[in-house]
Amino acid sequence: MQAPSDSEPHASASAAAPLRAPEVARLREEQEKVVTNCQEKIQHWKKVDNDYNALQERLSTLPDKLSYNIMVPFGPFAFMPGKLVHTNEVTVLLGDNWFAKCSAKQAVGLVEHRKEHVRKTIDDLKKVMKNFESRVEFTEDLQKMSDAAGDIVDIREEIKSDFEFKAKQRIAHKPHSKPKTSNIFEANFANEVKSGDLLADKKLWARLEELERQEELLGELDSKSDTMIVNGEDTTSSEEEKEDQNTNVNVKHQKTNSLTPSSCHKDIIHSELLNGQVNSQLNCSVNGSNSCHSNEDDDDNSDDGDNENDHNALGIGDNCVPTIYFSHTVEPKRVRINTGKNTTLKFSEKKEEAKRKRKNSSGSGHSTQELPTIRTPADIYRVFVDVVNGEYVPRKSILKSRSRENSVCSDTSESSAAEFDDRRGVLRSISCEEATCSDTSESILEEEPQQENHQKKLLPLSGTPEAFSGTVIEKEFLSSLTPHPAIAHPVLPTIPERKEILSEVSEETAKRVSKFKASRLQQKN
Amino acid sequence: MAELIQKKLQGEVEKYQQLQKDLSKSMSGRQKLEAQLTENNIVKEELALLDGSNVVFKLLGPVLVKQELGEARATVGKRLDYITAEIYLGTTPDLEADPGSF
Q: How far off is chain A from B10, nearest CA to CA, in Å?
């Protein structure tokens, strides 16, 4: 009875009074019903008690006489004179069809026992009634308050149960347990690679989509960017995005050495790092026109990134005609976008779409797609792209400025240790040479973009003829630089003002020149 | 589409009604059991009050059958146990046919 009455106040939609007068009235009614019910029962039991009392009395007086002359009822309308004998023998109904013959006094005792029971019942009922009477009082007070509708306000707090926690925004790992088992995956990857076959593009796409969905579910992209696991079996989803760079690199080397790039399809796709690097290989083998989009990520790649890029050149030379997936991390970005065919075999298809859109819109979709697609640092590089001469030029991060290169810090960009040192050495040497060329830097600056374009066009040519081993010898670099003095040198730490602007461009040119020239030189050699 | 939903709703409503009937049956059965329990408790206590001079009868149909006091007490005790077991199980015995009483 309480449940429906209690639900009343909450169910109603009437807004005016906070206490909702009709519901309160209903509550009161229900409570009063209970009270009246209790009262009725109590009355009933009181009657029973009275009856027992009368019975006791009768029993006490009955044995006074041996026999009584009475009018015996005969049916509903007739009586007959008779005698009441054996006045002391009483057959008592004990209950449940049990009878006992007792004396009058024993019967009195039984009756007394029953009366005890009755009294108990009455007491219980009285308690219930009292309880409900107090409730009624309270409800009356509520009603009065609601009628007054003045200062008293009902305080309510709605608990929104529809607040859902996103799945696994943070995973709390046990204190001494490894969240990822990278070593194991590495082994699997190797095995997988050996047994891998050429996969259809659609399979790849489907797999990518699935992985993407899994990624979203697990949401681990942002949290774990340090470790990347290469899973050769395509089983892991979110974790695949977080892969050990080292493992990826190692695996990649294995792959490049032993197997065709296409075999790495499955596995590579899962890795953020590898995607850019390996995909280029894959694309080369599969489509022949693939771009090394993933190289966007190479900005943060480890030292081996450049080497892998070099490997890209290998594949490219064989299959790809149009572009320049050239080993350089920066170049491929540009080139990739230019070619624009299967731009992304990146880890996320959304990025691909964004790229396509960007290509289609020729830079117009830049701002609109930034927000949704950025999930990893690599995305930023991919998204923040400048348009230079109608072509997409990835914005160089300030971390890659010349000033930083010459500073003590290492791993400023995609640089491998060797190349970095080479560059450094080169730069230093150049700086020495070009210390006096600061005046010419301005003019050179203008030339640089042009140079870059030239470089772009030149690169494909260089890409096709031979495979670039990826090693750049300092001597060659210097020698290669000499014919193009204006290109690489203008921006140097000596001109701190233009560092950021020029350094990016010059870096690109310098790098481009370095590898390109190196390859040329190797050709010659 | 609306018809489907309506049919579903109808089915659900019927289920609910059935459940309600079952519930009321169970409730009534339970109440009867409880009543019998209290009654038999009283009988047991009153039998305890009696002594050997009293003759105890059991009503079986129109017949009052003589019973011994001890036997009566035992029978009532067994009946009590039976009723408590029934209550504990939550099942209702045949409300019409009462094996203990006949």
A: 23
Q: Does pLDDT of A451 surpass 50? A: no
Q: Alpha-carbon distance A467 to A462, whole Å?
A: 9
Q: Per the CB < 8 Å rule, is B39 touching A91?
A: no
Q: If you average pLDDT over residues B53-66, what whole number do you get?
A: 89
Give the one of A91, A96, A100 whose C-beta lies nearest to B50's C-beta.
A100
Q: How much is the mean pLDDT over chain A?
A: 61
Tell me the nearest-neighbour CA distance from A70 into chain B, angstroms.
25
Put simply, the answer to whether A99 touches B59 (Cβ < 8 Å) is: yes
Q: What is the pLDDT of residue A45?
A: 93
Return the DSSP state at A437.
G
**pLDDT of the residue at A466:** 62
| ipTM higher than the 0.85 cut | no
Of the partner residues A94, A114, A117, the one whose CB lies closest to the CB of residue B47: A94
Tell me the C-alpha distance between A468 and A483, whole Å: 21
Nearest to A24 by CA among A103, A142, A134, A182: A142
Please check whether residue A238 is in contact with residue A213, taking contact to mean a CB–CB distance below 8 angstroms.
no
Residue B59 and residue A110: Cβ atoms within 8 Å?
Answer: no
Q: Which two tokens stand for residue A27?
A: 């509550």
A27 near A139, Cβ under 8 Å? yes
Joined together, the tokens standing for residue B12 give 């659900």
Closest Cα to residue A97, out of B6, B50, B65?
Answer: B65
Question: A180 to chain B nearest CA, in Å?
Answer: 48
The radius of gyration of chain A from alpha carbons, rounded to an integer in Å, stands at 47
CB contact A105 to B (< 8 Å): no
Please check whether residue A48 touches B, CB under 8 A: no
- Chain-chain contact of B59 with A97 (C-beta, under 8 angstroms): yes
What integer pLDDT is reported at residue A20 of this predicted model?
A: 65
Question: Could A113 and B39 be called an inter-chain contact, meaning their C-beta atoms sit closer than 8 Å?
Answer: no
Q: What are the tokens at A107?
A: 């019967």
Residue A153 phi/psi, 5-degree rounding, is -125, 140
Interface check for B42 against chain A (CB to CB < 8 A): the answer is: yes
A2-29: average pLDDT: 56
Average pLDDT for A212-238: 55
Q: What is the mean pLDDT of residues B49-55?
A: 82
A96 vs B100: CB contact, 8 Å cut-off?
Answer: yes
Q: Provide φ and ψ at B58, rounded to 5°.
A: -120, 135
Asked if A92's CB is within 8 angstroms of B46's CB, the reply is: yes
Each residue's pLDDT tens digit, A318-371:
433 344 444 444 444 444 444 445 554 444 455 656 677 777 665 444 444 445
Single out the residue of A206, A417, A383 nearest to residue A304, CA to CA: A417
Rounded-to-integer distance, Cα A194 and Cα A287, Å: 21
Tokens of A138: 């309270």
Give yes or no for A106 touching B (CB within 8 A): yes
Is A102 within 8 Å of chain B by CB? yes
- What percent of chain B has pLDDT above 90? 47
pLDDT tens digits, residue range A154-181?
677 777 666 555 555 566 666 665 555 5
pTM of full prediction above 0.90: no
The answer to whether B55 faces chain A, any CB pair under 8 Å, is yes
Helix, strand, coil shares of chain B, percent, nearest 5, are 70, 10, 20
Q: How confident is the model at residue A474 (pLDDT cuts 50, 70, 90)?
A: low
